[in-house]
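Appendix B. Raw example, untouched.
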Amino acid sequence: MADTPTSASVEQCKARKSRSQNFSEAEKAAIYENYNVYKHILGKKHISGNKNANTRKMKNEARENITNKVNAVGRALRTVDDVKGKSQIDLN
């Protein structure tokens, strides 16, 4: 009985996110180039003169812009979290 999968476990396996493709060199270059454009926003904990909500909004907009530019040159559709994770690993 324990060897047969239940319908719930089968559904969980189907719902798992599949692994995405590796980042291409063009995507890595787009992340690096665009990170340098927005470094003054993304590299700081707080942007002087702005409250936390504004800083968070500006950072999110910068990350969305970078993601759009990466998706324009890439072969796979990347999310903001994918690009954010890649930039934190490679650029820090």
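End of appendix B.
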